[in-house]
Every structure is written in structure tokens, then in C-alpha cells.
Amino acid sequence: MPIEISPFDPSSASDSDFEDFYKVLIAVMALDHPEQPMLTLEECAKQIREPATALGPIKRWAAREEGHIVATATAKFPAHENRHLTIVRVIVTPDRRRQGIGTELLRAMLPDLGADGRTVVMANGVKADASGESWAREMGFVRTHAYVRQVLTLSRVDPALWRCPVPDGFRLEQWAGAAPGILLEEYASARTAILDAPNGDSSLEFENWTAERVRTHEADLHARNVENRVVVAVHEASGRVAGITELELLSNQPSRGFQQDTAVAANFRGHGLGLAIKGAMMRWLTADNSAVADIITHTAYNNTHMIRINHALGYETTAVVAEIEVGLAELTKKLESY
After folding, report:
1. pLDDT digit string (tens) for the chain, length 338 residues
2. In this structure, are 130 and 247 located in the same domain?
3. 231 within 8 A of 284, measured Cβ to Cβ
4. Are residues 193 and 298 in the same domain?
């Protein structure tokens, strides 16, 4: 039977569409990322209906056979930094791979990929050296960076690992939601410390944080019912925020936490602040939230210092995922030749 490809609109999709969408997702995750906890159907549908849009607009497509979805695609269009990029994800149910469906999805997406003058197509979270990356290479994508996925399973970790001392001359502050006004400017400045994190050959640009940008980000999280917890280290003598760590709790995934950025300003490194603030985060979380069973994070594969900190806290490395990209012009020529 012929494959039919069309846009997928979550606002008008039927329950059976979401069930098909979910079946494709769990089949792909079971093969490519079996170590990663899986969403329920209800969690998946809510995530699709209420996506994180702070990055920018999102478009989706579905490939159907006899009315049932067998593959899906997503394109994200960054609205701040990275306006040269379109970030894509193409997934095909394992039993229908190597039949040209992913290529046809990519072809259907092509007219949208250059929106607003974008010139580079990127995919991230691709299982390294697996079939998806192999297919992407055929389309002209190259690996520009890689990350290790690390998981902290609370039931397997001794909480004593999180009792990390605060270095002399520093104090810790914590909040959920909006940063206190007295720390806002310093907090925004400290967040930019992530700018010198290892980034390989990726053309992805990290966010340039300002106080206004922080408030916009906080408002977006609040609108999506995401609880954002923050722990910072403050240098007592100067009042500067020397290090930050963030963790997100999603209402549609109550058993899971997502460790976000951890950064220490360059002139405060070497004191053990990263371990202290991440340890404090775990003590805080487990003291008042018994629903969370595991924490997931991704760390640049060559960021050996942060990987070592995570291992010290009980994280286990479970997979390597690739970041890949191709110029839009090159991708267009490649698809024209197929």
C-alpha cells in the first residue's frame, strides 16, 4: 500500500492518531533507547498537545499506511539564538525501516526547513552508531558532537553520596519557580557560564542569558506547569552567584526529574562547587518529593569533569547520543538525487 504523508496537528488529531503515534514512539525507544524510562500514552499525548515552545515554533508530520501512522517527524524552529538552524527528528517504526519512508518524510518537510532563511538542519538525541545515524549519514548529515545519557535511579543510590560540603566562603541558596529579585542579575550572569562548555564542531549556540530572558523562561515553564528547581552557590565576599544547577519536574511525568544546566563561573572553578550544588539539589528533592524515581541528564561526552561529578552522585552512564547536522543546500541536492 502507498505511504501517505501529511502534517500532524495535535489540536485536531483523533485518539486513534495519538495511539498510533505512541506505538511508533515506544517501538523505536524499545529498540534504540531501551535504558530510558518510557512515557505512558497519556503522558505522551499531553506532551505533544502542550509542547515546550520557548525554543520556538514546532511542526509535525505523520506517514500513514492504510490510515495508520508508521512514522513521524518533527521540526523545531529556534526563535532566539540558532535562527540559522532547524532541529528535526524523524522516527520510523523498526519493522518499516530501510523502505524509504524516512527519506520521504524528510522530503515532505523540506519546503519548511528553510523557514526565515535557515541554512542548517540538525538532529540531536540520535543513538550513536545505530541505524538512525547510519541513515542520516546517507542523507549527508555528519556527527558534530555527542553526549552521554546518565541516569540516577534513587532506589539504587546511597543518599550519603549527596552530603557534599559547601566550600569555605560560599553559601547555597535555593528556590522553585522565579529567582528572587535580589539575585536575578547575578543568576542570569552565572547562567552564561555554560557558554564555554564543550561543544565539539556543533553550530548550536548556547543561550545568552539576561534578567529579562530568565523571567521569560520562568514564565514559559510556569505556563506549562513545569516546576523548575534551582540551587546556586553565592560567593560571600562579593555577593556573586558563582555556580548554578537546575532541575525540572514535569507534571505529566511525575516519577522522573530532568537535570538541566549546571555551570560554575570560570574564576570560581576548582573549589568543588559543582558537587556541592548538585548534592544539595538531590537532598532538597528527596526531602519533599517521594514521587520521583529517577533523574535523567545529558552531558557532553568530553566534559570529563561533569561526568565524574555525576558518577560521584550516583549517576550511571547508559548511552551515547549523537548530534548531527547538514547544510540545507546539501540536503536538498541529496534528496533530489534519490
Report:
1. 588 999 998 888 888 999 999 999 999 888 888 877 778 888 888 888 876 666 788 999 999 999 899 999 999 998 878 889 999 999 999 988 888 999 999 999 999 999 889 999 999 888 899 888 999 999 999 999 999 999 999 999 999 999 999 999 999 999 999 999 999 999 999 988 766 666 667 777 777 889 999 998 899 889 888 999 999 999 999 999 999 999 999 887 888 899 999 999 989 999 999 999 999 999 999 999 889 999 999 999 999 999 999 999 999 999 899 999 999 999 999 998 87
2. no
3. yes
4. yes
Asked if residue 153 belongs to a domain, the reply is: no
Q: What global pTM score does this model have?
A: 0.85
Strand-pair partners of 264: 243
